[in-house]
Amino acid sequence: MGIFKKINFGLRKTRKNVSGAIDNVLDSYTSIDQELFDELEEALVMGDVGVSTASEITLRLNDIVRKKGIKNPADVKTEIKDIVADMLEGGEDMGLITIPSVILVIGVNGVGKTTTIGKLAARYKAEGKSVILAAADTFRAAAIDQLDVWAERAGVDIVKHKEGADPAAVIFDTISAAKARGTEIIICDTAGRLHNKKNLMDELGKIYRVIDRELPYSDREVLLVLDATTGQNAVNQAREFAKIAEITGIILTKLDGTARGGVVLSIKNDLKVPVKFIGVGEGIDDLQPFNPKAFAEGLFEALPEDYEEDDIDLSKIKEDIKPSDDSQENELAQAVGEIFEAMAEIQAEEAEHIEAQAQADKEEITDESDTVESVVEGELLAVVEEDDGPTAVFVAEEAHEEEKPKKKKGFFGRLFG
User: Fold this and answer.
1) CATH of 11-88, one of 3.30.70.100, 1.20.120.140, 3.90.850.10, 3.40.50.150
2) How much is the pTM?
3) How far is the CA of 345 from the CAs of 86, 339, 341, in angstroms?
4) Pairing state between β 287-289 and 378-386
5) Is residue 23 within 8 Å of 44, Cβ to Cβ?
6) For residues 32 and 55, what is the distance between their CA atoms, to the nearest angstrom?
7) N or C: which terminal CB in the chain sees fewer CB atoms within 10 Å?
8) Contact (CB, 8 A) for 17 and 299
């Protein structure tokens, strides 16, 4: 099932709640007036969109209706859908390029944080990326065991300590393991306590400092997991966490089991935090990247039963570009092959050049001569008479040591520097 179908199916309860209420309002009017806008705003608020977001939607709708000269209430729904899609756009992509990159996952207990981490690991593994998990939620009973099960299920590595261990130490060991193994993605589980914000802030502060020190230039995301079934309470949780952590994105779980999915709009518009992933089912592949267009469509319109969508299996991409009888595929495969051959030739030439230069330097340094000369920059300590002639003893120094770049302060450091 493709992403549009998964999201559309997962939003069926929310769609009935939000779109159904909007249809009822529009069907009861034959013309467009201020009373219609007031009732639409009320319907959006009841759909957990939030008061301020509902007000903004109706204000923008009023402006569009006036500019386009729309007279028929039935035409309003399409405009609402476009406004929602536009409002949700921006920031949903995960900008993870460096190796390794870090994903720090936070959230209160019970929102599905550990399960979400397992599904996230499985998704990246399916994309061909290497993943390692850090079991840094060392205080919740069985949290480590639960993450261990998900690591095995997803087929990824995990670093864990005993229960009650220092979470920052787990993060440090995970980073060390990722560096040694060349792992691309580090996903860190953390404690979910929010009732004692001081302790949680101190704990996160230690973790941030470890990451900034060990991976100062790494790409990283701080993702807050929220339970969609809690509606506006999820928005309140996000506000509280935003006070103690620099959240870069939201993962909204259990969206398929609630009619309160309109909370996505409130999170994005009120808190200015993008939604990165949404959970639309219990399966390991039901954690979907957030797609604003698909979400807006699913919020207002059910897909037809015969809707067909290409569902790309990332694990088979390499097979798809193998040569076949099809001329286009052959041309693509040949072009890819030529690129890799050219890269291999360039690397081989560079290796030969480096080896030749090293041999030349070696011959120059070991050249036997009656005259003792210093052939490298350094301090000549003594000339020792040997059976086969004088030998120079010196301390070599690097002629031009490159100045190391100054260590930049990571964005975690800006908060806990």
Assistant:
1) 1.20.120.140
2) 0.68
3) 48, 10, 6
4) unpaired
5) no
6) 17
7) C
8) no
Residues 345-394: pLDDT tens digits? 655 665 565 566 556 555 554 454 444 444 444 444 444 455 555 554 44
Q: For residues 24 and 304, is the Cβ–Cβ distance under 8 A?
A: no
Find residue 249's DSSP bridge partners: 223
**Architecture of the domain whose range is 101-317:** 3-Layer(aba) Sandwich (3.40)
Per-residue pLDDT tens over the stretch 207-229: 889 999 999 888 989 999 988 88
Calculate the alpha carbon distances from 249 to 110, 160, 296 in Å.
19, 25, 19
Quote the CA–CA distance of 360 and 376 in Å, as a whole number: 13
Kindly report the backbone phi and psi dihedral angles of residue 204, in degrees, each rounded to the nearest multiple of 5, phi listed first: -65, -35
Pull the structure tokens for residue 317: 């991409």
